[in-house]
């Protein structure tokens, strides 16, 4: 079933009650969303808010390009916001078209700001904002075999490193428990990944470049051992064969899951324009194609640029998909669990 869509452009009577103004009038567009203020008055959208229904798509984009309803965040009422469907390859106007996989990301700008949850287009890097986690410095996300989404970050009031679960419809996090990183002499978790064979949650700790695990019942961290490599980024991901990959600013490694030791498999080849101190700070394998998707941080300024990229595990070649939200520090492919 397909829900009714909004017309591409609406006409409206002028203030004299007669002429119908066309789609390219010279009337003001206060919020710069692609609809002039009079059109917004006709539609009932907010002329001072580019995205009236907060679905990640501007009002003008909804009306002019997609035919979705700018007053409904979920035009086809299938529980997925229009923006999330669009970047995930589904039709936001068709109830029977829903995503099967969604690429989620977490972004933070500065250690004291709350991190934001996004859905990301794997073909362009476009990020659609979903909501706030309620945690800071979110730098690792992964889903377990039951489809529960976990993340690591910092509790704002106590500045405590935490493991928490995430509601993928809102981004809101629910604490599992403190990781106890300070007891290990560590300050941060750079990435996490579930081992497919037994659902063990692995993590990478810094400083100290140490591999470890997290208890999903308590959040508690346990160190396994030093990787023997150093510096920046430190993305982590299991492939479908339960090989644990690690990437930083210069190499792709395989980590020994018993002692954390790294074996280099390839030097990373970063493309232009990401050439000033680039590093891989998050990654996850596509569960169907096996392609390794990464967040590439190019740290050439105080506020570095981020790119969505893929990484060839055989050659180390990094291929840019496109610019994405800055501060992207966690990535996860999420398999949508559909009710029967």
TrEMBL record:
Its main location: secreted. Residues 1-91 are annotated as: Disordered. Residues 30-40 have a biased composition (Acidic residues). It is found in: Secreted. Keywords: Calcium, Secreted, Signal. SUPFAM superfamilies: YWTD domain (SSF63825). Residues 1-12 have a biased composition (Basic and acidic residues). It comes from the Bacteria. This is DUF4394 domain-containing protein. It comes from Candidatus Entotheonella gemina.
């Amino acid at each position: 079933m397909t829900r009714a869509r909004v017309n591409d452009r609406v006409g409206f009577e002028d203030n004299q009650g007669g002429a119908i103004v066309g789609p390219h009038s010279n009337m003001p567009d206060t919020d710069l969303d692609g609809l002039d203020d009079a059109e917004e008055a006709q539609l009932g959208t907010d002329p001072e808010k580019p995205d009236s229904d907060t679905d990640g798509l501007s009002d003008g984009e909804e009306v002019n390009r997609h035919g979705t309803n700018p007053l409904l965040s979920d035009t086809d009422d299938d529980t997925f916001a229009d923006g999330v469907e669009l970047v995930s390859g589904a039709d936001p106007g068709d109830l029977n078209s829903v995503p099967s996989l969604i690429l989620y990301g977490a972004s933070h700008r500065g250690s004291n700001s709350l991190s934001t949850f996004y859905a990301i287009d794997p073909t362009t890097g476009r990020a659609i904002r979903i909501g706030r986690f309620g945690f800071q410095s979110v730098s690792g996300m992964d889903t377990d075999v039951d489809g529960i989404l976990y993340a690591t970050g910092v509790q704002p009031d106590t500045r405590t490193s935490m493991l928490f679960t995430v509601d993928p419809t809102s981004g809101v996090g629910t604490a599992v428990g403190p990781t106890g990183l300070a007891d290990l002499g560590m300050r941060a978790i750079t990435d996490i990944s579930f081992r497919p064979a037994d659902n063990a949650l692995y993590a990478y700790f810094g400083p100290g470049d140490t591999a470890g695990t997290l208890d999903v019942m308590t959040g508690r961290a346990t160190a396994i051992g030093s990787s023997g490599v150093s510096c920046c980024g430190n993305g982590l991901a299991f492939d479908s064969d339960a090989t644990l990959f690690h990437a930083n600013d210069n190499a792709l490694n395989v980590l020994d899951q018993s002692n954390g030791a790294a074996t280099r498999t390839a030097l990373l080849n970063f493309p232009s324009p990401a050439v000033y101190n680039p590093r891989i700070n998050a990654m996850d394998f596509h569960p169907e194609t096996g392609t390794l998707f990464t967040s590439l941080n190019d740290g050439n300024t105080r506020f570095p640029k981020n790119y969505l990229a893929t990484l060839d595990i055989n050659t180390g070649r990094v291929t840019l998909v496109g610019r994405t939200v800055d501060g992207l520090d966690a990535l996860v492919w999420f398999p949508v669990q559909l009710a029967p």
